[in-house]
Amino acid sequence: MLEYERRDFAKLLKKGALEGRRWMRATDSEAVRIYDRNLEAAPVTVELYGSWAKIVDYAPGGMSEDERTQITDIVCRNVYIERSHIVYQLRKKREGLEQHSLVSPEKAEFTVKEHGLSFIVDLVSHIDTYLFLDHALTREYVRSISADLNVLNLFSYTGSFSVYAAAGGARSVTSVDMSNTYCEIARRNLCANGFRDESRYPVIAGDALPFIEKEVEKGAQYDIVIFDPPSFSNSHKMDKPFDVKKDYLAWIAKLSRIMSDHALLIFSSNSSTFALDKNSLKHSFKIIEISSQTAPQGFSKSKGGISRVWLMEKLSVFNDKASKRKKERIVKPVTDQDFESLVSSIESYDSEKDEKTAPSQRKGSRPGYNDRARRDERPRERRYSDRRDYSDRRDYSDRRDYSDRRDYSDRRDYSDRRDYSDRRDYSDRRDYSDRRDYSDRRDYSDRRDYSDRRDYSDRRDYSDRRDYSDRRESAGRQERSDRNRSYSGERRSGFRPRSGRDEGPSSRAQSHAYSRSRRERKPVRPYGYDTIRTSRNRNDSSDDEE
Fold first, then answer.
1. Which SS3 state, helix, strand or coil, does residue 384 take?
2. Of the N and C termini of the chain, which has fewer Cβ atoms inside 10 Å?
3. Distance between CA 142 and CA 150 in Å, rounded?
């Protein structure tokens, strides 16, 4: 790892440890994940279990020995865990039907708390630690809804869901798992939390499919079924391998036979490629996904390590007799009296229709508009007689009368506000009208008018001239100053010097060039300049020798 990668890993680790310890303090827990492969340079997970830390390496082929040492050192210094209490393991990627095997024959079991309940963990023997931290909030939800209900926990692993259900006051909790080792740890977890009654909290070691068939034969009914299977399993105790993506619909159909009406199925899968087919289940279950509400602390959503959770409520099913009775159409028999009244009503309707309809408007004939007599004899019909009759509209005359609304005439009267008319009268201030009269001052209006003075604003600014005050005192300095003084006098008076002398500029352009050349004059040579020997240039072709 590079230096900046080590610094970034340390920052993320320290931040995750701070947030994780706050969560543990608020929930009375001792197990949490604080880092989940957030950096590409550090593809590891770091989890805290009390005073221990476990690092799992997810890099293909594993990280180098130097990188392992650096990561362990950073975890030790930033999470404040003793180096002897840090466990580093490599998680190999499974290929084909391969399963995770035993990592070490040694065991390091101890107890940690989660939401106030005790669980046994082992950080050395397996990759898994007997407690899946991604279901912490899902287990707490099970405890909140298990009061006086019969709970079935399939693929129970070490019975963590069973402990939460028993702590929630469930009437009975049945745990089923194929591994004898995990079933023994489940019994120990139940006993550690005070649930020792095996008749009420049985733990069954065996295949879940034969257990379901036996429960169907017995007519057992469960109110909550927890179905959290592995993504894939090819145990030798099973008749055929289990793949959750292929077999989950058949399993849910079998579980529905031992579920009571409106029973709840909690289905979970940690496969990143799993997709639930809701169309196949919507006729039997009401499905709600609660993955976002049960997202665990410290897990990264982008890495796909979070389990998805669905709540499936079984819908009520009517028996055959009830469904047939519901579908039957009840027809009332018609008597002779009813038939006669029906015929008379039809005849009266036809007669009224004939009276209203004019002969000229019947089918096959047109009104004779050209025959004035027939047009006058034809009964005058209403032009808009087929319009909708709105006479039966709702009468709004009984609407609420708002005349008794609140009268705001008794609002606060501000007429008695403070009267500021008695404020201090400043009219008696000091009268400054007797101040000294300066009108007899001297009149300077007859002063000399200097407005016609020559304008020197366009004079050249010589403020940036070089200061030669630090020049070396020499015999010729006075002569140069005299000569410059004479030139300046001549220039101001417009006098043109005689020929043969060192004449000054004759025009403004020449004057500018002349003064510029004087400003660009080389500086005075320093003291001892004549004793300095000139270095020779290698390109100099002269062969003079001293």
1. coil
2. C
3. 12
54-79 burial: b if 16+ Cβ within 10 Å, else e: bbbbbbeeebeeebbebbbebbbebb
The residue among 98, 139, 122 whose CA lies nearest residue 268 is 139
Assigned CATH class of 3-90: alpha beta
Q: Which of 316-320, 346-350, 384-388, 438-442 has the highest mean pLDDT?
A: 438-442
Q: What is the C-alpha separation between 287 and 313, in angstroms, rounded?
A: 7
pLDDT at position 334 is: 46
- Asked if the domains 3-90 and 132-321 are classified in one and the same CATH topology, the answer is no
Asked whether the CA dihedral 228, 231, 234, 235 is positive or negative, the reply is negative
The answer to whether 89 and 54 are in contact (CB under 8 A) is yes
CATH architecture of 132-321: 3-Layer(aba) Sandwich (3.40)
DSSP H or E run through 343: helix 336-356
β-strand partners of 310:
267, 289
Q: Are 89 and 169 in contact (CB under 8 A)?
A: no
- The 10 Å CB-count burial string (b at 16+, else e) for 517-533 is eeeeeeeeeeeeeeeee
At position 257, the amino acid (one-letter code) is R
Q: Are 204 and 183 in contact (CB under 8 A)?
A: yes
CA neighbours closer than 13 Å in the CB half-sphere of residue 512: 5
The answer to whether residues 132 and 157 touch, using CB atoms and an 8 Å cutoff, is: yes
- Domain limits of the chain? 3-90, 132-321
Percent over 70 (pLDDT), the chain: 54
Q: How far apart are the first and last CA of the chain?
A: 68
Cα gap 372→378, rounded to integer Å: 10
At residue 537 the predicted structure's pLDDT band, cuts being 50, 70 and 90, is low
How many CB atoms neighbour CB 32 within 10 A?
A: 25
Q: Is 48 exposed, middle or buried (0-12, 13-18, 19+ CB in 10 A)?
A: buried
Higher pLDDT, 437 or 215: 215
**Minimal CA–CA distance to 215: which of 153, 258, 151?**
258
- Largest separation between any pair of C-alpha atoms in the chain: 158
Closest by CA to 312, choosing from 242, 271, 243, 251, is 251
Q: What is the pLDDT of residues 91-135, one digit of tens each?
A: 887 655 455 556 677 788 999 999 999 999 999 988 889 999 999
Are β-strands 31-36 and 308-314 bridged in parallel, bridged antiparallel, or unpaired? Answer: unpaired
Confidence label for 451 from pLDDT (cuts 50, 70 and 90): low
Read off the tokens for 456.
Answer: 């020197």
| Strand partners of residue 89 | 56
Q: Provide the edge-to-edge strand list for the sheet that holds 86-90.
A: 31-36, 44-49, 52-57, 86-90
Residue 347 token pair: 């005849």
The Cα angle at residue 222 between residues 217 and 228, in degrees rounded to 5: 105
Distance between CA atoms of residues 268 and 229, nearest Å:
7
